[in-house]
Model the fold of this input.
Amino acid sequence: MNINKNYQNLEDSYLFSTVARKQREFQEANPDKKVIRLSIGDVTLPLAPAVIEAMHKAVDEMGTKEGFHGYGPEQGYDFLKQSIQSYYASHGTQLETDEIFISDGAKSDVGNILDLFSQDNVVLVPDPVYPVYVDTNTMAGRKIVYMNANEENGFLPLPDASVKADIIYLCSPNNPTGAVYDRDGLKAWVDYALANNAILLFDAAYECFVTSDDLPRSIYEIEGAKKCAIEFCSFSKTAGFTGTRCGYTVVPMELEFDGVKMNKMWLRRQTTKFNGVPYIVQRGAAAVFTEEGMAQIQENLGYYQENARILSEALDELGVWYTGGKNSPYIWLKCPNGMESWEFFDYLLENANVVGTPGAGFGKNGKNFFRLTAFGDREQTIEAVERIKKLLG
Done:
């Protein structure tokens, strides 16, 4: 028996585990200090009333012989897929319901989708990057190359014709940088993928934060994308399902490589390795797209968007360079006075008792940058801002 030695190439600890450990150690050493966490991208508001009502009703159904649901379709119930189809249509994107696969979250599918691809594919990811893209391919032993996301290009790198890759990861609005591609930017990547017989893995987990009409919310708003892209999305940020777990992946019927339809491959993979999302959770997710649900969800999103505005205005006042804050729940700021991100993490924690996420944890291009999240409590966000302004002002 031989172990998968590719695991030895991973960092010893997942980024957010390290952040949590350092916060815990500081709190234990300073029990009288109130620490405010603006690090992990977890939501703080409760589920919307429409969602709770739908889930309660589904629980009651499960208690009757007529309403009981056992194993459901691995790709999701039609009632939820049709709701997602209508949601996309409301933004001008047409999908077939058989192109939509319900999952327990975007993170799972971003890793699981790699089952469809040969180990010898070259993977292209931005730097800085959401660690899951890198770690899942490192586990599989694939070669990874990096595109430069930096201050000069606004952390929105464009294709380099001299770089050849087979699997390309894009996230917009981006985690960690909060930067958002416009249509021309995404069109450049679609054209690159089509020209190089490559596939785009497009993470749209934060699409609900896009409020500017001139910015795309889906890769499928770009002509030709259905021939080269798979899209992942989640209810975690849209509707606060971080603890409820539900998301979806779109695999277009037009997507085909070596004469094989990727939709058919993904269906085969899911029916073998996945038993589906619970009926009760899917009923709650479907309620998100009702008129009542959308109004309640928008109220929650508005709460986080206001937090982002509060953080952004403080950085503007301090003269700190950043991306994000608009059309995104993340603020990616340049560490003051040339500090490196872990140095700034300690400085902020020890002197302002505020926790953020060091940019170095997302790649070498993040070593002088720092991520703050707008998903915190409003009063704590305001207090954190006052502490940061006092410290840096």
Summary: The radius of gyration is 21 Å.
